[in-house]
Amino acid sequence: MIESPERRRATRIDKVFRVLLATDEHGEMWCVARNISTSGMFVEMAEPLPLRTKVVVRFQLPGDDAAICAIARVQNHYYFQYADRGELSALSGVGLRFLRFVPDVGAPVPPERLH
Q1: pLDDT band at 115, cuts 50/70/90?
Q2: Which residue, of 31, 37, 48, 72, has the fewest CB within 10 Å?
C-alpha cells in the first residue's frame, strides 16, 4: 500500500464538540464538529450546506470559559462509510475554512475594554 503525503498545512486536533452555525439563508443550527485546526474544522451535518456558503461559527472548547466566534466558508462536502459493530454506517458533513475570527456577537464587552 502506498501512503500519500499529508496535504494539510495545519495540525488537526481530533476532538468532538458542539458548534452553533448561523447563516442568513438557513438560520441557526447546532452541529457536531469532529476536529479543528487553525485553518478550519470538519462539521458533521445530515444535509450539508451549499459549497461557498458563509457561516458564523460559535463554539467553546471543553474546559475553556471563552467562546470563539469565526466567519467561515463551506469548502468541501464529505461522505464517509464505515463499519460499526459489523453494520455499515455513514457520516456526512462539511469542511469549513476559517476566514477570520471575530468578537462573539452579543457577548458582554470585557470591563478592561470599556475605558
Answers
A1: very low
A2: 37
Residue with the three cell numbers 470599556: 114
Query: Are 41 and 93 in contact, with CB atoms under 8 Å apart?
Result: no
Q: Where are the beta strands (DSSP E) in 15-86?
A: 17-23, 27-36, 40-44, 54-59, 68-84
Instruction: Judge whether 54 lies within some domain.
Output: yes
Q: CATH number, domain at 89?
A: 2.40.10.220
Q: Are 45 and 33 in contact (CB under 8 A)?
A: no
Distance CA 50, CA 60 (A): 25
pTM of this prediction?
0.76
Distance separating alpha carbons of residues 20 and 56, to the nearest angstrom = 8
Residue 76's domain comprises 17-102
